[in-house]
Amino acid sequence: MRGLYECSKCPKLWYDLNLLASHEIRCKGKESSKYARFDGAHRAEYIPQSTTGKARGVLAGARSSSAAPKAWKSGEEDMAKGLPIFARKVFDTLIDDHGSDLDVPGTLVALYDVHTSCVPTGKYCQAHTTIDPSIRSYYARAYKSTNTIDKSLEDFAARGIKPFVLSIGLDGLACKVELILPWLKRSPPFTLIIRETELVYGMEAAYFPRQEFSFHHGLFESHDLLAGLSTQTAVDDADKSLLVAWKACQDWKDYGQAHNGRSIGRDGEPQRVLKKAKRGPKISPVAPTGRITNILKAA
Q1: Could you tell me the sign of the dihedral formed by the alpha carbons of 46, 85, 143, 120, in that order?
Q2: What is the per-residue pLDDT for 68?
Q3: What does R_g of the chain's alpha carbons equal in angstroms?
Q4: Exposed (0-12), middle (13-18) or buried (19+): which is 149, by Cβ within 10 Å?
Q5: Element (DSSP H or E) covering residue 89
Q6: How many C-beta neighbours within 10 Å does residue 132 have?
Q7: Nearest one of 155, 143, 175, 168 to 83, comparing CA atoms
Q8: Most buried one in 12, 38, 39, 278, CB count within 10 A?
Q9: Mean pLDDT of 13-27
């Protein structure tokens, strides 16, 4: 749907007056295109200098509920220039952390203004189901994000590759289990890697070990998560830890921010989330460090 309202400083069209007003505050005319909202999914390819044919590809997902984080631009003004730099850092760090001597081809998909309450979407966009222009926008962008990832997974499957899917953050791809379940049912198998800077929402150090001087990484198989979500009784403790953390994260997004904090945590432990907190409750034990070698080998 094309916008009906045109910016007074540039030719950009908007279909919501609130979005138009927000844009005009930042708009400096036709030369300010770098401030314009990008409605597609940003992609950055990581092409190794040499390939052995033994490595599994990696699909990384980065999502923001609001504006694009500065880290995505890597010091550049233009996202198109900064995102490939950010992608190389992401994949280089992943390989370094896990001691792999294999070159790993990778794709990073990034999209901002995408809410976890809407992703992953179904096969078809749901923007037409509401007349609220803001919600239409959320649905449309959520669909673009999901569809881009789905196509990448289908491409891996067509080549007979079971990829790694790297979530940059616990909610870097999604965290609403009610939407994750149908998405897993229709997706080809993959290994999920959760990358976090700290243990939040009840994440346990045993299942999200911290690499030396780097990030926490948790590894999960999509078919195990699907089984746990389908029966609501995950067999593996690691899967339970992730599902509990996802639920706590989405609960805080849905309720905690609006109610000045609430009691959430693993097994119902009371852990109050302050109003200004953005990462949820932390757990106190220090995570053990270590190195998990060569996880990127072909399955």
Answers
A1: positive
A2: 85
A3: 20
A4: buried
A5: helix 79-97
A6: 10
A7: 168
A8: 12
A9: 76
